[in-house]
Design brief:
Blueprint (H helix, E strand, L loop, with lengths): L1 H12 L8 H9 L6 E8 L2 E9 L8 E8 L8 H15 L4 E9 L6 E2 L6 E2 L3 H8 L3 E12 L4 H15 L3 E7 L7 H9 L1 H4 L14 H13 L3 E9 L4 E10 L6 E9 L8 H16 L5 E7 L3 H10 L2 E12 L2
Parallel strand pairs: 3-4, 11-12
Antiparallel strand pairs: 1-2, 2-3, 4-13, 5-6, 7-12, 7-13, 8-9, 9-10, 10-11
């Protein structure tokens, strides 16, 4: 399963920077506290042709399930993907899940793309997108993958950081730590991350994220440690209330230590308009340069309709390189 996943990532991104190690994959399958996963393999004479997985929240009231199907490049267009998807759909239906969701990644290509239902962005009409569409999935969102060259942006981002800090005012303070998250900060971080499900643009996707608490933070960071991943966390605290109101996360993986991956970036809705997003992102980039000087590039994904975040990233210097799709299919 790891081999197929990494081969697809290498095809999309042109490098091994997005590889997962075997310990990382194994750790995720062994600890299914947050999202149980059911997997299937398609094989012939001992050769793995494809894989499928169905992940879901353990909450009996949940209606959604995540579905991922991958087929070896040399064995496509032989019905393997269709059979795996049918099996995944049967598993989801047996679990009582009526909404299937999937994530796809795509290299940029010429020609007219397949537009998202949000009206923002389009995915290439490649084999992956056409397979999903023919099987009844609808492209709900398109995400832009962008990259930043750290080697030529330090002066610029430091200047942006200083201006944003001034605009924020004295009621706000920047905090930074490397995982594992200190126990005193874990509940506040969990509360802030729970806002990703409600405050980030989601189009017509049925968002179900489960409960965030200190224990979930610890489990995620334990998975990181198994794979040698280092997570950098920057946050802004509103001093009068003591509440964390902005977040920026980066991680550095041993798969390619020259690239940092930017994950969640969020500002609570009630604290927007003060350039906290620019501040928390630029300040964390400064810590990245200081602590991980081997990192030369940062990559991130943003929904195409998330213009406030894209404006910040464009101002910092991020440039588009590829895209991803968020798909959904209703079984009933």
């Amino acid at each position: 399963m790891r081999h197929l996943r990494n081969a697809h990532a290498a095809h999309v991104h042109g490098s091994s920077a997005y590889d997962l190690t075997l310990p990382q994959v194994l750790a995720a399958w062994q600890d299914q506290s947050d999202r149980p996963v059911i997997g299937r393999l398609a094989e012939r004479n001992g050769l793995i042709l494809g894989t499928a997985s169905v992940d879901h929240l353990p909450d009996a009231q949940s209606r959604t399930a995540g579905v991922m199907v991958r087929v070896h490049a040399e064995h496509r267009r032989q019905g393997t993907g269709t059979r795996l998807l049918r099996e995944a759909e049967a598993i989801a239906a047996a679990l009582g899940r009526a909404v299937l969701q999937s994530w796809t990644e795509h290299r940029h290509s010429g020609g007219a793309g397949l537009p998202a239902s949000t009206g923002f962005g389009a995915a290439p009409r490649d084999a992956t997108a056409m397979f999903a569409r023919r099987r009844g999935f609808r492209l709900e969102q398109v995400y832009r993958q962008s990259t930043l060259d750290l080697r030529c942006t330090a002066f610029h981002t430091d200047a942006l950081c200083a201006r944003a800090r001034t605009r924020a005012g004295d009621d706000y303070r920047y905090l930074f730590w490397l995982s594992p998250t200190p126990a005193a900060l874990a509940p506040a971080l969990a509360d802030l991350k729970s806002r990703m499900a409600t405050d980030a643009p989601s189009g017509n996707v049925d968002v179900e994220d489960g409960e965030w608490d200190a224990e979930r933070i610890a489990r995620i960071e334990a998975h990181d440690a198994v794979g040698g991943v280092r997570r950098l966390i920057g946050a802004v605290r509103h001093e009068p209330s003591g509440v964390l109101v902005a977040l920026n996360e980066l991680n550095v993986s041993p798969a390619d230590p020259t690239i940092a991956h930017q994950n969640d970036t969020l500002v609570r809705a009630e604290h927007r308009g003060r350039r906290l997003g620019t501040w928390v992102e630029c300040a964390t980039l400064a810590r990245l340069r200081e602590l991980f000087p081997q990192v030369t590039h940062v990559e991130t994904y943003n929904a195409e309709e998330n213009r406030p975040m894209l404006v910040i990233n464009e101002a910092i210097g991020f440039t588009p390189v590829s895209c991803a799709g968020e798909w959904q299919k209703r079984l009933s």
